[in-house]
């Protein structure tokens, strides 16, 4: 096996996991190459679902994938650890020492040699240096953060319910800074939670006692999406009694409030930061690889880094040019999915001495899901290039299909069908919200 071409993929997010699955099934299974995935977590959950984990409408335990078990089934190797550096001359990835929750070292720093390296480490929240954001905001970059948010939310509801029983002031103010897709969808999920939890014993706290605000610096929510979609989303949030504060940059976050640029102070016992993303900081010092101001690795259209043809990058951590456009490929799940497919073809070609496949992004539209209330979005026509606005059950069906497509890429059609059936049974047997 040591003589086999070694492909190392760092980052087991949506794109990275889809890539190693395809490579393992084709190259690893037939011993044409050795494929290794490196990730700092033991399990994978599709990142667009983290806001549902946070609100409790999705049980992460039933939807996470264990990397070791998946690796064995799909003929690749898994290494637990966080990438800390790179030695391009020796062609080695440096993996930081791994510590347990008590701080004890489990595995020391180590190096993994590669012939081809793929970096797909995703992104983290960008607080733009806003005072108090790191100290007082909750973030949803990882499954651990989503679970922490869920526990804090349940405790906040329980505390306010007890205060209501005692006749005290029990208003709960929740603020979401950033009205992109994550912020808007999280607001709808939290409104659902405020209406569902009283059914499970917290009947002294009413949904009207829970104030949810979405704060956006731009002049409208969902600023990166078409105006019609933004208008529809605003109407739906207001229908769910979510306050929409557009054109309101945040200047400071305090322990129990959010301060706007104009000096307005908004009470907030729970504040979530969902405004902007950036690539992990360690990429800016990765043995001479070129990065932009957002720490993204700059890549060619083939997804090869500009300084090293044996190192590729894709997904949120890469700045990939688009033909006939000044803007790079947007950091979206559908882009990572398409890049994983193109890179799979390129890496298979490399073993056969063939050319790399240039990546061309195809925007299939956008869908915004308002929990169980409704879904709105636009779909791009493949032939005409025009977008078609959709909403309601049809839009909801398309939204659900996105996750099923991800599952098909990881498990195949038959297993995905079984998973779908198990999900239906689980929903019939368990509460609508995760209560612990």
TrEMBL record:
Sorted keywords for this record are: FAD, Flavoprotein, NAD, Oxidoreductase
Question: Per the database record, which ranges form the FAD/NAD(P)-binding domain?
Answer: 6-340
InterPro entries referenced in this protein's UniProt entry, alphabetically: FAD/NAD-bd_sf, FAD/NAD-binding_dom, NDH-2
Secretion signal: which residues?
Answer: none
What is the designated name of this protein?
FAD-dependent pyridine nucleotide-disulfide oxidoreductase
**Record keywords: tRNA-binding included?**
no
Gene Ontology terms, MF aspect? NADH dehydrogenase (ubiquinone) activity; NADH dehydrogenase activity
Q: Please verify whether the record's keywords include ATP-binding.
A: no
Family according to the record: Belongs to the NADH dehydrogenase family.
